[in-house]
Design goal:
heterodimer; A: about 220 residues; alpha/beta; four-stranded mixed beta sheet; 7 helices; about 35% helix; globular; B: about 300 residues; Rossmann fold; 2 domains; four-stranded parallel beta sheet
Chain lengths: ~220, ~300
């Protein structure tokens, strides 16, 4: 069975028979590609059946996290979403869908534009508070123009994004993190609380769990 | 036979959520809206917000045709008529009101505006509810625009009605979009002294807090019938749109969607109350529903066991 998490920028593909995992840009997916089931912003273009992203995230948390109470946060290129469970029960979720988002994509674009290696930059205490990725980039360029090192300016933006994500997720004492930014060491180190990274295929684990729970309704 | 086929095709293509117009008769849909081609011997009055009861009763006495400029929609033009007046990132409902005023006052020619008002008299007066707290504190700006740009009589009124009439519709089991329509109708029924619509109470599965989703009523279709209404819409059923104390109420025991128009000051209130509610979520909408908003809403309802 082929599972697909078709995000805004990247597609994560899991072949459940071979356990082969692939990440590629959504733009590079063949137009004829059809996964059996999946989730993500672009899923309806590339899969026969789809699972709501928050639902997938919830089921992933229940499948992968041993604690009964946890906060699982997914920071992608376009948006961020989280689920909170207490004593095994769903308590809360939210999703910053459009305005106030595009943070992940902004961090990636900024890194390319300023030629930054995020793994080699130290986290900053000071941070930039920005409403969205585009406004955040504007702040970084202003700081660079006022002689702040590009890496430090970008790190302040990333710290600001981390603070925003922490508040967005209702200030938990520990965060399980998934999404594209788990691969950004500076981002992970800038989180203000203990942060445990799950891989980028987490949502697909949720899709699997959801499909198993609804096997009478889902045709695989 | 051909006529029948044509009629059936029209019915299939007809989307009431795109055509709903709020008038003193409640929501008017589809072909019924032709009644808005108003008789020439009656005054044709636009209203914005919820004027106080005394003002509305006076209009009824005059046999006025009343058009709610909040509801009448020229959606496809919502950004075009306002782009030189308002910033792009601005409350879509205010844009809609401005676009509606421009359409209803013939500022735009009939071939540009898809007007349901062809053949009518021009609107003769606009009454604007300009209360400090009520549906919207941007109304003062809208009033300024009418005064400065349009040669039309403008009356500013404040709604201080605080006598609560009850919330039977809000707490009933009729579908949520019908609740919005009936609440609008209730407002006029009360003024016309007609028997109030009082459907039976139903135990709630969830709640909707906020203003009606003017930009896209299809939002209501994702909620079960057992949805109670809180916030400003409940204030309207009570005929107390400026009753902030009532507006702030919610039921902490049921999952609640706190809804607001994007860029509306009420979004701050909705977001705050959602953060206080044990199982609340804040949802906003700009011009219309987006796929992401629908996904966020349906996930919330599903994860809370409201819908399967």
């Amino acid at each position: 069975m082929i599972l697909l998490d078709a995000g805004t920028t990247y597609a994560k593909i899991l072949n459940t028979e071979t356990n082969e995992k692939t990440v590629k840009k959504v733009a590079e997916l063949e137009k004829t590609f059809k996964a059996d089931i999946g989730t993500g912003h672009n899923i309806n273009r590339f899969a026969k059946q789809s699972v709501n992203e928050i639902i997938a995230l919830s089921y992933a948390g229940k499948r992968l996290i041993k604690e009964k109470s946890f906060t699982l946060l997914d920071v992608g290129s376009r948006d961020a979403k989280y689920v909170i469970f207490e004593n095994g029960n769903f308590i809360h979720s939210d999703w910053n869908t459009e305005c106030g988002a595009f943070t992940g994509q902004a961090i990636e674009i900024l890194g390319s534009y300023l030629n930054l290696n995020y793994n080699a930059i130290e986290p900053q205490k000071e941070f930039i508070t920005a409403t969205c990725g585009l406004l955040g980039m504007g702040h970084v360029f202003d700081m660079v123009a006022s002689s702040v090192e590009p890496g430090i300016a970008a790190a302040r933006l990333i710290k600001g994004v981390c603070m925003s994500m922490y508040r967005f997720a209702r200030k938990p004492h520990k965060i399980y993190l998934t999404g594209g930014l788990v691969n950004n060491a500076l981002f992970v180190k800038s989180m203000p609380v203990e942060t445990i990274c799950l891989d980028r295929f987490t949502l697909l684990e949720g899709v699997l769990e959801y499909a198993a729970s609804k096997k009478d309704d889902i045709n695989l | 036979m051909e006529d029948k086929d044509k009629k059936e095709t029209e019915n299939i293509n007809y989307d009431p959520s795109q055509d709903m117009v709020l008038t003193r008769h409640g929501f008017v849909k589809g072909k019924e809206k032709s009644f808005l081609q108003n008789p020439k011997d009656k005054p044709f009055i636009g209203i914005i917000g919820i004027p106080p009861k005394a003002v509305m009763e006076d209009l009824i006495k005059k046999n006025a045709i009343i058009l709610s400029l909040d509801m009448y929609k020229v959606d496809q033009l919502i950004t075009e008529p306002t782009e030189n007046i308002l910033p792009k990132a601005y409350c879509a409902q205010i844009k809609r009101i401005i676009a509606n005023i421009l359409a209803a006052t013939d500022y735009w020619t009939e071939d540009v505006v898809d007007s349901v008002l062809v053949g009518r008299n021009p609107i003769s007066e606009i009454i604007i509810e300009d209360s400090e707290i009520s549906r919207c504190n941007e109304m003062g700006f809208v009033a300024d625009f009418i005064e400065n740009e349009l040669k039309i009589k403008l009356t500013r009124v404040k709604n201080n009605d605080l006598e609560r009439k009850g919330d039977f519709i809000c707490k009933s089991g009729i579908p949520l979009d019908d609740k919005f329509g009936q609440i609008a109708g209730y407002f006029y029924r009360d003024i016309e002294k007609k028997k109030p619509f009082r459907p039976e109470y139903v135990k709630p599965k969830c709640a909707f807090w906020g203003t009606p989703p003017w930009g896209d009523f299809s939002l209501a279709s994702y909620f079960p019938d057992e949805t109670h209404i809180y916030g400003w819409t409940r204030c309207v059923e009570n005929l107390t749109p400026g009753d902030l104390k009532l507006e702030l109420e919610f039921d902490p025991d049921i999952p609640t969607v706190f809804f607001a128009q994007s860029f509306c000051p009420k979004a701050g209130l909705a977001s705050y109350l959602a953060s206080k509610h044990p199982r609340g979520i804040f949802i906003d909408m700009d011009l219309g529903l987006t796929r992401s908003t629908v996904a966020k809403l349906t996930a919330f309802l599903q994860l809370n066991g409201v819908v399967v």
